Amino acid sequence: MLRNINKLSSNWLGKVVMWTVMGILSISFAVWGIGDIFRGFGQSTVATIGGTEISVEQFRQLYTDRLQQIGRQIGRPLTPDQARAFGVDRQVLQQVVGETVLNEEAKRLGLAQSNADVVRRISQDPTFQGINGSFDPARFAQIIRQAGYTEQRYVAEQRSATLRGQITGTVTAGAAPSASLTEAIDRFQNEQRSIAYVRLGAAQAGTIETPSRETLESYFNDNKPLFRAPEYRKVSIVEVTPDSIAKWTQVSDADARKAFEQQKDKYAKPERREISQIVFPTADEARAARERLVAGASFADIAKERNLAASDVELGLMAKSEIADPAVADAVFKLPENEISQPIAGTFGVTLAKVTKIEAGTTPSYESVAAEIKRGLALDQARASVEDIRNKMEDERGGGANVAEAARKLGLTATTIEAMDRSGRGPDGQPVAGLPQGTDIVAEAFESDVGVETDPIAYQGGYIWFEVLGVTPSRERTFDEVKAEVETRWHAAQVASRLRDKAKELVAKIDGGAALATEAAAAGLSVETADKFKRTDKVAGLSEAAVRAVFRTAKGSAGEAEGDGGERVVFQVNDIVTPAFDANAEATKTLKETLRRMIDDEQINAHVAKLRNELGVTINQAAFAQVTGANQ
Fold first, then answer.
1. Is the pTM of this model over 0.85?
2. In which order are the strands placed within the sheet that holds 232-240?
3. Minimal CB count within 10 Å: which of 224, 286, 394, 415?
4. Residue 270 DSSP label
5. Nearest Cα to 625, choosing from 65, 34, 33, 60?
6. Closest of 340, 362, 367, 361 to residue 351, by C-alpha
7. DSSP readout, 37-85?
8. pLDDT digits (tens, 9 = 90+) for 527-550
9. Is 133 helix (H, G, I), strand (E, B) or coil?
10. pLDDT surpasses 60 at 613
11. How far is 153 from 176, CA to CA, in rounded Å?
């Protein structure tokens, strides 16, 4: 169950995407059970599950929604190739098939949910609650719109999700990790070790004699892939964004002053008040509470009696526009500081309020915001012209001009990258300058070719055009081209080999009874210590590989591992502490909940796999590839 937890992609984007996928696709259903479920049939259907067909358009919408969700999470768009590389296409298909299998089972069982129950569940969702803690229709509409849903589609999906939840809730009812499993994992996570260690560096490797040409040539021939020149591409790039256009847009003081007068409220800082309030169901209760407050009771006293949290009473500093109830807003902003209001009949009940602090509003001068206004006007003008520029660029390209030629005709600047490899580095090994940040144009360029007309890429409210002008194929470099690099790598390999041998020799001596301190002194090394660290801790002076090695080594024994910066670490485990297991600790409760969710997922996967086999699942591979871009 736990063996795949740490199998994540090694690069930063891969880690971010995989964690995001795990967050969005909450249950990874076991859809793939047999190798022949992919069968060709009509192009209008991606999958058939029992009596339900998933059309190409349905799956395209779901797949696009997921890619957009992931893109928002990681702060950059995810290309179809990246999505396939990270397995997002299969994850989404797994989810769709798994959910549909459960939908079919819900139909078979005759499960249903009333409209009133759907409305109740949505209105109680904290996501859609406004500042007053009640359902906010405007917030609901905004959030589902941003997520790509219509109200009708969202309500339908919530109804289906609730019915699926009835099934999965029954399947997982009573599931819980055993006490022995929880304790074993707790001990594994919280075990602490203390060590003494030494670090062997280049000085301990001794003098490495200057190698002969023959030695270096032999090393070069044995390791030619290390010295191969990568493929390079020459690329022309044109970037058109509101920011880039606005730099050259002139805005007059007259226009800026006019905008300032029209939008004074936007630049003004409104008066803000620190407010305490309690909402009562009746005016009588509010009046009685006010009498007590005037007599010396505090809002906190009354809130405690009514089982209200501090966040329900102390609203903090608020502008008048931030108070949801207009009646309360009007009354509070007429109230003197530290005075208790009369009962206020508002939308959500009868309110008592007190203002404990008043921050006066301010209106800035035109001069203090002129630069901001001019930039805003310039950006507005630039945004309006972006689409016009795009159309003109496409017209020029349609007439036969390449990207650089089209840009020149329109007075735009084209940047030419003479040579870049797949990592965005030039022949000198340094990152190339001039690449737009926040988009993976390097990958796009390596997916294209000379003479291929590519579509403009949406970028920061504008567009990027690029064109591959030339390709320098990867090739084997000659020895003389890379002689200096060969010597550097050969020298590092010699040092590493010697340090590895010395480390193993030192481990053998310590395990044979020698004292680490004695051997360290003889070798001119300093003994360092690291106390009571866990296997997941980052320990100063120790590499991750060394920490892992420490937890594979018995108490009193020695071990060695690769350190940071080419060092070798030799250590001796002095102590192992296994903390007492506390079943009632908060950390233990969190662990049990995590294990319970994992067990739930396994049981749901097994149930879905059983239903899938009973219903029958077929996948149209051609249609699936069409939607995900695998056939492009």
1. no
2. 414-420, 232-240, 462-472, 457-459
3. 224
4. -
5. 60
6. 340
7. -B----TTEEEEETTEEEEHHHHHHHHHHHHHHHHHHHTS---HHHHHH
8. 999 999 999 999 999 999 999 999
9. coil
10. yes
11. 35
